[in-house]
Amino acid sequence: MQPKLELLSLDLIARILDEAFQLMQKPGIKVQSAAAREMLIAAGASANGDVVNIPEKIIRKALETTPDEFCLYDRKGQPKVWYGGDAVQFDPGSSGVHILDPDTLEHKTSYTPDLARVVKVAEMLPEYAAQSTAIVCNEVPKTIGDFYRLYVVLMYSQKPIVTGSFSVQNLPIMFDMLGLFAGGRQALADKPQAVFDVCPSPPLIWSDFGANNLIELAKARVPAQLISMPLAGAAAPVTLLGSVVQHAAESLSGIAIHQLANPGAPIVWGGAPAIFDMRHGTTPMGAIETAMIDAAYAQVGKSLNLPTHAYLGASDAKVVDAQAGLESGVTAIIGALAGINMISGAGMLDFLACQSPEKLVVDAEGIGMALRLVAGIQVRTETLATALFEGINFKGDFLKQKVTRDLFSKEQHLPSSVIDRDSIRGWQASGSPDTFARAKTRTRELLAAYEPPCYSPEQERELRTMVENLARKAGMDALPKLG
Amino acid sequence: MTDELFQKMSQSILDGDSDAAIALAKQAIDSGIDPLEAISKGFVVGVNQVGESFACGQAFLPELVMAGEAMKAAVATLEPEMQKRGTSRQVYGKVVLATVEGDIHEIGKTLVGTMLSASGFQVYDLGVDVPTAKIIEKVKEVDADLVGLSALLTTTMVKQKEVIDELDKLGLRKKVKVMVGGAPVTKDWVQKIEADGYSEDAIGAVGLAKRLVGVV
Ligand code: B12
Q1: Are residues B158 and A109, on separate chains, in Cβ contact within 8 Å?
Q2: Residue A290's pLDDT is what?
Q3: Which of A99, A175, B5, B84 could form a disulfide with A110 if both were Cys (CB 3.0 to 4.6 A apart)?
Q4: Pick from B61, B104, B186: which is nearest to A207 by CB?
Q5: How far apart are the C-alpha atoms of B37 and B44, rounded to whole Å?
Q6: What is the mean predicted confidence (pLDDT) over B49-60?
Q7: Which ranges of A430-478 would DSSP assign to H, the alpha helix?
Q8: For B94-212, which CATH class?
Q9: Ligand 1 atom 57 nearest Cα
């Protein structure tokens, strides 16, 4: 039995949806894309300027065609990530602008080698089912930053990718890049290798960019991931439930636009909400209430049979310290117990602004524990205990049992060297390293052991040439050196 | 009697009670109190107090923002009377504030605007996704002393530079100070684009603005 955290009663879910439907009617949703407005109006919505009043029946119809589940594939075409049901998977947080220097602890502007390092570390850790386009590379022109990140991830990783575009024009480029490995656009739609984040703007706005993004993704049948981010108390009601209602209204209106553009295209009920810190005006990702909003909206999404996503497992600490560990661990556990299909955020510090490969390594331990927890307590032997007592005769001899040897690695999650379970003498003998020191060592080891994906030389050349040409158009003479 | 009124004015700001602030402003006008005095001896006292308690961690953003709103309401109520008397509230400076083109991050910029206006600046908040030309136009129209530019995306930060370059081209750069802000803005960036300053938060923005117009 997969253990579950449910914060809402069925009654409350019904009320949340009911109020979300009311909000979509009044005040309505501000839809700043003419194309999206026209589709909604043609389907029976009414509009006043760019505010569209969307009747429940349009949403209900859209929900009939959204797929309950889909897979993401790796570069070899193997299914690796399952969206749907209560599958729980993790990927690193994305779009950071800084990288934590492990030696000086400075938050430095991030460049290509930093992204390469993050991707390599995530590639080596099985706790990450997918990669993300984790940080922006500041040496490339901002206009090509989105697909350039994807290029770096593709060069270093076989895993499915959680990504997103910064402009609608760059979407087809990113499809073509992924298509190189999938075998063209059609093959990419059949076996998608990436999911694209799309954000409504709180409160209750679909920007021109966001809505057109949804439409293009739907047309290409590349999975879209809704990232509604009510900020409770600032860009959303202060109550957790008020924010969950807003999340539902923003997400449901997005689903309507998406399904009208192409019924049956895959879409994920995701988000990155946060409470608003009333002292500092920040958006704490590590707050317990942030995680509670996530768990609650995930439950709403599940009631509609939608695949789910959330931003958890990140911290607002500035270094990889106790706060980083506890916020990341606690929120990863909550996301896992909520049965969220893809949980983004690992590696992140400072309100999603700063990535750290060392933190990714520590977070992998928390994720390992979370995954162990949701694997649940299982019946592995015929009798639970009685047969295991045969021949024991009041002696602590269980180490000698064959069943111990057979089952210990199933029953116990084996932590890496990042988790200290040594004796105090052993710990002292190895130089009394703290968590961060152990993480630094392990990061170095992982990087040394990393092996790049073996693509065919043509594939690699084609990808490189494609990005090179586009970079030249954007004013670069040559692509930066990779890792 | 007047002191008591001033005291109530200050309290209305502390309570973030716009309705009370408006009523008290009207009462001041009716009883012939100089609007400038109502502001300086009444309402501003409350604003300063909230600012101080916020700075030392005793007040929170909702209190700060509500106080700012009540202050705005009070000043707006007193405005016609000031005009009648041919006086005007002394403002520290005129600020044109915007989130740059292509960027719709609103919360931080609005917070900065609220704090600046509560602290005695005349703020022209142009909203989000504002093209450079529109910002320049407003600067010229209102004869601004300061421009505040918010950018939260690495892709839109370049627009901060664009505004500065444009002001330069028009020969306005000496006269108009430019402050920038937003999560990706760093000291290095400020130097690179030759802005006059940046701040990490709204309270810092007020200090910065005061420094730039030379009041502290
Ligand atoms: C909320 C939010 C949104 C909301 C905005 C809602 C709204 N109505 O404003 C929405 C959902 C719309 C959004 C959209 C996007 N976002 Co966003 N967003 C954020 C988030 C989580 C918080 C921003 C915020 O409001 N903070 C709270 C306020 C109070 O803080 P603040 O804005 O920093 O402002 C303070 C200071 O900076 C300073 N300040 C601000 N302005 C000024 C101006 C002056 C003159 C001065 C002196 C000071 C100053 O004072 C303020 C008050 O204390 C940040 C994460 C972060 N760490 O910043 C990401 C973040 C900025 N977003 C990000 C991204 C990528 C996006 C999208 C591109 C996502 C997508 N793929 O669709 C879109 C872009 C849309 C667009 N064209 O602008 C990235 C940017 C990364 C990058 N490389 O540039 C961030 C950093 C998150 C991340 N790591 O992924 N986002």
Answers
A1: no
A2: 98
A3: A99
A4: B104
A5: 10
A6: 88
A7: 435-449, 457-473
A8: alpha beta
A9: A351
**Which CATH code for domain B2-85?**
1.10.1240.10
In whole angstroms, give the CA distance from residue B156 to residue B100: 7
All CATH 1.10.1240.10 domain ranges in chain B, comma separated = 2-85
Go through the domains of chain A in sequence order and give each one's CATH number. Answer: 10-56 (no CATH), 64-375 (3.20.20.480)
* B57 in contact with chain A, both atoms CB, cutoff 8 A: yes
- pTM, to two decimals: 0.90
Is the minimum CB–CB distance between B104 and chain A shorter than 8 Å?
Answer: yes
Task: Kindly give the distance from the C-alpha atom of residue A141 to the centroid of ligand 1, in angstroms, as a whole number.
Answer: 20
Provide the pairing of β-strand A224-226 with A267-268: parallel
Q: Which two tokens stand for residue B183?
A: 């999560």
The model's confidence at residue A482, banded by pLDDT at 50, 70 and 90, is: confident
Which of A168, A229, A280 to mutate against chain B (most B CBs within 10 Å)? Answer: A280
Residue B1 confidence (pLDDT) above 70? no
Question: B56 to each of A337, B24, B50, B203, how far by Cα in Å?
Answer: 39, 29, 10, 12
Q: Which of A136, A278, A316 to mutate to test the interface with B (most CBs of B within 10 A)?
A: A278
**Predicted confidence (pLDDT) per residue in A133-185, tens digit:** 999 998 998 889 999 999 999 999 999 999 999 899 999 999 999 999 999 99
Ligand 1 contacts CB of residue B182 (under 6 A): yes
What the block records as the tokens of B57 is: 């961690």
- Can you tell me the distance from the alpha carbon of B38 to that of B77, in angstroms, rounded to the nearest whole number? 11
d(CA B210, CA B208): 5
